[in-house]
Sequence to fold (314 residues):
Amino acid sequence: MIRIRLCEESLVEPILKGEIRTPCHLYSGQEAVAAGVCANLKPTDFVFGTHRSHGHYLAMGCGMPEMVAEIYCRGTGASRGRGGSMHLSAPDEGMIGSAPIVAGTISLAMGAALASFIKGENRVAVSFFGDGAAGEGVLYECLNFAGLKKLPMVFVCENNFYSTHMPIRECRVDKDIYKVGIPFCVDSVQVDGNDVLTVYETSQKAIDRCRRGEGPVFIECLTYRFRGHVGPDDNIQGTHTDIRPKEELESWLKKDPIKRFEEYLLSNKLFEEQALHNIRNEVEREVAEAHRFARKSILPNPAELSRYVYKENM
Ligand SMILES: Cc1ncc(C[n+]2csc(CCOP(=O)(O)OP(=O)(O)O)c2C)c(N)n1
Ligand SMILES: [Mg+2]
Fold:
């Protein structure tokens, strides 16, 4: 969680300075979801993300230098500088890909789960998506098919209560999103997405269930983004500001998943203050090194623009 948070916050200044031009949907505040779910996965599983996937990529153990280089659109980036923040891929680590088409990767995850099922491979597909994706029809098609075939798939809805600037209460009749899985006989649950241990335990049970061939699970994680929808505070485009009430943000800052877990570790004497401090120092060095790597990397060669779009020699 600290790797995600410090990496996200390190992007703020270069975004504001215009050094980073790819639109960045920062994950600060939602770390417990990515960390809690991905800690249960293997590199042979399949993770599909969204436009807000820096956290999923890092939680799968993929390289921070390659991610930061991708965000700077460098040739050494995870997608060779062609994708930017919203197209992160590291298939060897199980991070199959992220994409900004809202709900667009749910059906891709379902395809991976279907392939695993047909081949009897026991690999689990996890689809991360936001509350906004619950307004897209493809989610319901996938819930039906995954429920019908008992596919090894976990639907992880990160409900941060906003879809861009639209509060969920203004676009949904029933605010409990997890209930959408019930008519499709998909095991469905809502959890505190800012409590990493709850997310970890719930997703562990879900993933085990998938591995036993007992069918898909829908987990709604209630959480909140600390930054703007896109960019640090959405002011960067000069067209609009983040309209969320200040008091609402402040109340969620009190439920910061990192602070909560640190308090748990300290009060249960599982960790010393100094050990937490050392972790932060180590991660700060890792983040600084990732920026150095990215900045000194070359930009992609324009002559090669159309290469690597499709996999060659399939
Ligand atoms: C199919 C589609 N419709 C609209 C958009 C524009 N868009 C980009 S992000 C976003 C909001 C997504 O909200 P949510 O799914 O809750 O994810 P969050 O940004 O809160 O993480 C929208 C509407 C899009 N990228 N794709
Ligand atoms: Mg949302």
